[in-house]
Amino acid sequence: MPNQLAKLDGVYQALASPARRHVIAELGRGPTTMSALAEPFDMALPSFLQHLQILENRGMITSSKSGRTRTYSLVPHGLVSAEDWLSEQRSVWSSRLDRLDDLLHKLKESES
Amino acid sequence: MPNQLAKLDGVYQALASPARRHVIAELGRGPTTMSALAEPFDMALPSFLQHLQILENRGMITSSKSGRTRTYSLVPHGLVSAEDWLSEQRSVWSSRLDRLDDLLHKLKESES
DNA sequence: AAGTTGATTAGGCATTCACCTAAGTATAGA
DNA sequence: TCTATACTTAGGTGAATGCCTAATCAACTT
Fold first, then answer.
1. Among B44, B46, B62, B84, which is most buried by a count of CB atoms within 10 Å?
2. Domain residues of chain B, as ranges?
3. A17 Cβ contacts chain D strand, under 7 Å
4. In chain A, what residues touch B27 (CB-CB under 8 Å)?
């Protein structure tokens, strides 16, 4: 039972690898074939396939096969949960920092 | 030699755990002691300490000890690189989706 | 039909991860 | 000074991760 929390785990875990981030970035520009995605990496194909499967199992990308080539595409909203969490965090501590900033300014003013 | 890329790896890896995300979220509200952070988790302290050390090694949090308690705080810009990468990705594919959307609209219009 | 190519399956191996228990150390309080 | 508290160190275990090679399958191509 993958709840929302476990899902976030998976998305961040998936992003913690250059190969997988490359796939996401590349597919952001449009669908691409498996071997084209793998090409820049000095890695055996089966190893690269694992990365693709991780992303696919997380629901971040999809694929379909036609002939003997498999084409991958981005699932548009696969990254949203991850980005949401991060920006929420930032909004919490940045407002806290703003208040701190205010405080420092006031201290400075009261000095002079 | 931790380059920018390896650093991103580390940040995402660090976020791929409920315990560690809890720490980030909690410290976003202000500095807190180690045992307070650990309290909600059913986990031995040494295990929890590992999570804190992972975050600290990544430069996402800092700590200092006074007396026998250690207090952790957020390092304000520790999450920025992760958020930047994500929002950049989104901007790429969302503009692509917008163009697709336009295309579909035009197709629909030309039908009628 | 035979060869080549793109992808897949199977299985193996080293490393890292996420936990644990047990045994410290150092400070605070009675 | 004794004891409780807050954390730390050391060491061990099972599962997951990230890579590999070898073999196979399923289209194309010739």
1. B62
2. 1-75, 79-112
3. yes
4. 93
3-state SS, residue A22: helix
Nucleotide nearest to B18 (CA to C1'): C18
d(CA B61, CA B10) in angstroms, rounded, equals 13
CB B24 within 8 A of CB B76: no
Measured from the CB, is B70 under 7 Å from any atom of strand D? yes
Q: What is the pLDDT of residues A61-76, one digit of tens each?
A: 999 999 999 999 998 7
Q: Given an 8 Å threshold on Cβ–Cβ distance, is A96 in contact with B30?
A: yes
- Strand A32-33 relative to strand A61-66, pairing: unpaired
pLDDT in tens, A36-48: 999 999 999 999 9
Phi, psi (deg, nearest 5) at residue A82 = -65, -45
CATH number of A4-111: 1.10.10.10
DSSP calls for B59-110: TSEEEEEETTEEEEEE-TTTTHHHHHHHHHHHHHHHHHHHHHHHHHHHHHHH
